[in-house]
Amino acid sequence: MARWYDNAQTIEELVFRISEYLIEVNGLKKESTRVEKAPEEYRKYGMDYIMDSIGILLRCPKDIRLLEFHIKPLYDRLCKRGIFPPKYPISIGGEFIASLPFGKDKWIIYVVAAILPYLGEYLIDEWMEHHKKQSTYRDIMEFKESIRKKWLKGNYEGNILRKEDLEILKDLAPDLYRELKHGIEAVERTNSEIGEELVNLWAWQIMKSISMICILDATDMSIEEVMERIPKMVEAAAMAQRKLIEVYEEELERKMREEPYTKLIRVKVDPCERRMWGIGNWILASW
Amino acid sequence: MIGEGEEVDLVQLMEKLESMGFRITYSELLDVLKCIASDVKVRGSVLDVVVRGLSARDRAVVRELLEKARKRGLEGSVLELLDRIRGRFGVRELMIVVEDLLRKFRTPAVLDFWIRAWNEVAKGEFKIPAYLSMTGKFIELSSKTAVRLGLNRGTVVRVEVPWSDKCFFGVVSTTEPMCRISIKGQLKNLIEFSGLRWDKILKEIERKGSIAWITIEDRGRAFFFGRVRTRGRLDIPIDLVGHLGRGEPIFLKLSDEKGKVIESVKVGTERSKIVAGREYRECYVQFKGLKSGLYHVEAMNSKYYLSSLNELKMGFSGFKIALRDFEPTDPVRLGRYTFEIGKGVFEIDGVSLDASISVDVFRNTLRGSVGVEGGGGDVELRMVRVFGSEPQVELRIKNEVYSLARIEKYRTSYEGNAIDAYLLMLERGTGSRVRVRKVLFTPVSVYYQCTPMFHHLLSLRFPVSPPDYRIHHPRLIEEEITIGDKLLVSNVIGFEISRRLYQEIYYWSTVKDKKGLGTIGESMIDFLKEPILEFVSREIGLPKEELNMNWRGTKRYGLKVPDFEIYHRGKVVAVIEVSLGKDMKTVLHSHLIPEMIRRLTHNKFKDALGIVIGLEYSPTSPTLKMIFIIRDKSGMWMDKTRDLYGLLGW
Hints:
heterodimer; A: alpha+beta; 9-stranded antiparallel beta sheet; two-stranded antiparallel sheet; 39% helix; B: alpha+beta; Elongation Factor Tu (Ef-tu), domain 3; 8-stranded mixed beta sheet; 7-stranded mixed barrel; 19 helices; 29% helix
């Protein structure tokens, strides 16, 4: 059986088929839709190809383990066409990862629902604000290392975050704790509705972000097998986005009801102007 | 839990209780155990419990004392005393008592008296019973006890006498052969203050014994009896000047004989005068309008006062406004009458900001001030407390003071988060006109009514059209920053940013939006693409035109990509991580550098040059600082800020 990462051709075929699928499910397919070299404005962001309103980053060096691809809607084009957000505002990627909880040397395909970026900066700001109340950790480095040890036990390159892993943040990083708890809540609601643990929060050794993603271990899969799984993953990731918004909205409504205030200001930011769509500190789409 | 019929090791149990912060005597513990289980069996005698934790030498001293007591038939009362002392205090205090009593055995006639005196100590805080001279001029105690207690010549102690609840200070004048504490005229003043007479005191001494209690006074605090003379002049005993701090503000709490308390903050005036050819130093403070007479005074320096101050609070239209979390610092003179004495937190209903704490010795006030953004350094929001009255909130604009008139709470919801801000309206009446000024109190800063941030936060939307990310007027600033224990940065690049970008940084940090703030740092570096490519080209010896810089960024690409990658013919030759924060050193040391080291171990980047760029914004101006450091293939970190500056083309 030919695996999807066997050679440059198979990889390219899978990437273009996924791109086509993403165009289709978002209702963007036209007769003229075809793969083109990315114009300069997108090359700046590492994109090599575009397919209508989809951008494709594809790095396929000789050392196949350095392969990476990422497919995402070109939101600026969708904004211009007045169709933001699309039905599935998600991105899809694939790469080789040396160690994960489900094994070593894995080829994965992932669908991104949301990202909580700037984790390092977030932890520093929270530490500055709250560290005076505690005596457990000497400095931010020790605090960060304890988090890394807890979250990435087994020294995996990435690991799934569970509710109990967040306790370490409760006193020293309460804002981050709240946002990750909302993330876990959204993930739990999604998985229970789908009836399968598809979406998870992932922490990485490079503690730059937390990803709400749906990962597929595609190590032994052919192109067809991957393509069979993609729709369910895309559906799950989009649902997780909706659940995440739902969790934040519920909390906000509760807060508005419970605590008194004189005036309420609802700040509305047009994602198309800001080039970013998010909830809390989570990014759902960014360009 | 202790079950019926079980045997309990009292020494172990006592140690456990002590480690949990409980202090209890042997006899009290037995009573408790009997309440829990009536037939409980215990192991360990009262002596075992008393000598727990003592060295072999100290145990021998205790045994020697008990042996002497036994010979005089006092073993029971001494053991009972030691149990009480050990049950309340630590090993050090126990040994002070034991050694003191041993010495008292040399004059057995007074033994009973000292055992009673030490029994009094066991009832409250630890203090030393000492001999009060019948002249009332000094107190004496054994110099060995003094050494144990840590008394030296000049040490300020607190003195208590059995017939008054007021204490005063004493100063150790000699330590050999006996430790003598001079109480100068303080005892005489106490007698006058309390309306007593010396002959009555002598009767009291006959009845209760010639005794005084001493403890080492806390650094920065002292009690004394002081006389207010004409024009409200209160003399500060010269012996206390060094103890309280010379030339520093002193917080004074004066009580008159009727119990009325007057609080104030003053700075002492020190001068010398020559009387009969001898030079005397004196120190005094002036209380305008204060009745002459004798007062009991508690004097504290600013460090002691702030550490003992819990919070200053006031209510206004249902809002709780407070100054709290005081952190004293060495006093710094700001003006003729003002001193900065520490830091604190200014809080309105849970939203708090750092404040500086100062005193004004002329206006007799303590205040916490927060600088107001947009006031050009001339506007401050303050909570002011004039001693003897309730705190007030005011806005100071140059020399004008506006009083708080109204507060409104605003809740701003933004992308699922809610931020509380308080609109404070403050007014000042001039003739028939009332002028109103508004400030917005947010979790990040206080904004003045004329600032764009004030309006952005109170309006429905923020103008999100892209700001100008370009940097202006870069300059090299000499500034030494050590990062970790190996890297020394000797220069930073300082530059200006557009007003609009400055506002954006403040907006995102106010609404605590990390994604907004993070994007700004990356966008600014994207505008420095040319000099960075030039630098990398020189560093690795490849033509600049063959290099490509891709802006990746986690927010765009998900898992764990770096902020920027520089490619040469499809191969990553350099990788860049950027961070914009309030404290560049922390960001570099605890985040960017360790994460870059980790990233460079990855296969994809193992031959790449690691570049980290720290950007620091200032809370007071649109001026930013930048550090540019690299990690080469040999694993060495090098500061290349100066090199990048040379390529900026200015």
